[in-house]
Amino acid sequence: MQNVFDEQIIQLQPRGVFTIPKKLREGLFDDMGIAKIMRLGRKLVIEPVRTLPYQARSYTDDELGDFYKLDDKETKKLRAKGII
User: Fold this and answer.
1) pTM, rounded to two decimals
2) Chain-centroid distance, C-alpha 49
3) CA distance 41 to 60
4) Of 58, 59, 37, 55, nearest to 46 (Cα)?
5) DSSP H helical segments within the chain, as ranges?
6) Which of 10, 29, 48, 81 could form a disulfide with 25 if both were Cys (CB 3.0 to 4.6 A apart)?
7) What is the DSSP letter of 74?
8) Are the C-beta atoms of residues 72 and 63 closer than 8 Å to each other?
9) Residues 37-64: pLDDT tens digits?
10) Euclidean distance between CA atoms 34 and 67, whole angstroms
């Protein structure tokens, strides 16, 4: 069982909005940061989500296929040279 370090009563606003008191979010959440919320039975768990300091992108299946083909090609070259 986890220890409860601090707890406060908050009021749920219209449309489900509530404020996490500063005392509870200090050291966990960045200003304007994002969070993940999960429902576990009758409890809600809110966790900070850390983001990358740089922009990342997703790759299509075709692009991934091209990367794998290039990797295979490079691996064959290195094996032929006895490097790996």
Assistant:
1) 0.52
2) 5
3) 36
4) 37
5) 22-25, 61-80
6) 29
7) H
8) no
9) 999 999 999 999 988 888 888 999 999 9
10) 32
Specify the residue for token string 């008191």.
Answer: 21
Report the alpha-carbon distance of residue 4 to residue 79 in Å, rounded. 57
The SS3 call for residue 38 is strand
Q: Specify the amino acid at residue 51.
A: T
Residue 4 pLDDT exceeds 80? no
Residue 66, CA atoms < 13 Å, CB-side half-sphere: 5
Smallest CA-to-CA distance from 36 within 52, 22, 48 is with 48
Q: Report the amino acid identity of residue 36.
A: K
Task: Give how far Cα 44 sits from Cα of 34, 41, 47, 58, 81, Å.
Answer: 16, 8, 10, 30, 57
Find out whether 28 and 48 touch, Cβ atoms under 8 Å.
Answer: yes
